[in-house]
């Protein structure tokens, strides 16, 4: 639709709700044409959310074309069939699906919460497209210098850099294996065993527990090899364009609603290359992360006022100490993490038992979620996202069961540990979605002109955001980050005051934020 940007630009001042099958399909061309959208309904994302929501009657989502919505996956940038005439999405009736979704939400006893979740999910999709469009400011010259210092000059395709090969030689010499390929797991396992090191795998965590002269260079090789293969020269060629790192985000890419990345490794790029993320001249990066997001989320969603009291201020764990719940900050952290991840033995298990008496609502919530998971039941986040069901129903399909009863019990307990964390991690993801949904609009109002001429989001990682801003607006951005966090807390937890303090750093380079 050649005149779509003009059509949207003309109507956007009236703040309509744009309804489309997939934000990743429709929004990038609008952004490229200089058109920014305030709100939308991403029918693909919301369809998948509603079909798994326990408080929704899924039969209300069934109807003409609904089976196609069930199968519709995210649009991938660069897909040659993106606008193909025979693409299934070309023939989907957005109006029919939108009407079904509205009816399903209206009929739910949790309509208010679900409506907030759908709005936040769709706004997150807009933010994801905007971050890909704007990109993280990236200095290719600095990245190349870092790679050269660590790995040596750029190698020919299919060969190792000289620096990496030199470390490989150290590994071969230490293990007396002149033909060893350190990238080959079978060869490496054989070399370790010949050296008297009986191990089942070659993971770095396993290797660190071994004593041998070859372990140090081997660990160094693994670190450098990972850098070369995932964030080396080939990565720059593919993901950095026009001085910007442009990853492809996938909102709700995990079952909990957390984002994933379709490419570029945006959710895991390492400290070695962060010095290359440098703000433009006259601009700065504002980096903000939430302190102890998931424990604070647990306090809010459970309504545990004692834990909420401990959460006031910058350090929830120290708040638990000051409240007399535990003797040390380390004990507080051990107990809370144990409760959220299912620690039942050792020191963490003992801490959980004691803290359950102190914070019964919070610890009882995750415990009940675990028991529900073990029974094969669906659990839900605060706003209503449902967990996936237990994979095997052994009562109806015994062939799917592990061979012994103990195996079945272990499987159910493992699933219970998943549902225990699902409710907290998923609600934390909802808080973060509401945070960036409000923040993107606040940032837009700070400036004038197109998106990338104003303060704008360039990075999001679960509980951390990076904003690229004109230097003279950096203080205003910090204020809006904090205001958006307060808004997210009010939206989710309403009358229970829960602090979500931010650690903020105003820097030129992303690497400087870790030192601030």
UniProtKB/TrEMBL annotation:
GO terms for molecular function: exonuclease activity. It holds the Pfam family DNA_pol_A. Residues 272-473 form the DNA-directed DNA polymerase family A palm domain. Its EC number is 2.7.7.7. InterPro entries: DNA-dir_DNA_pol_A_palm_dom, DNA/RNA_pol_sf, DNA_polymerase_A. Keywords: DNA replication, Exonuclease, Hydrolase, Nuclease. It comes from the Bacteria. CDD domains: DNA_pol_A. Signal peptide: none annotated. It catalyses: DNA(n) + a 2'-deoxyribonucleoside 5'-triphosphate = DNA(n+1) + diphosphate. It is an enzyme of class 2 (transferase). The keyword Transcription regulation does not apply. SUPFAM superfamilies: DNA/RNA polymerases (SSF56672). This is DNA-directed DNA polymerase. It comes from Nocardioides mangrovi.
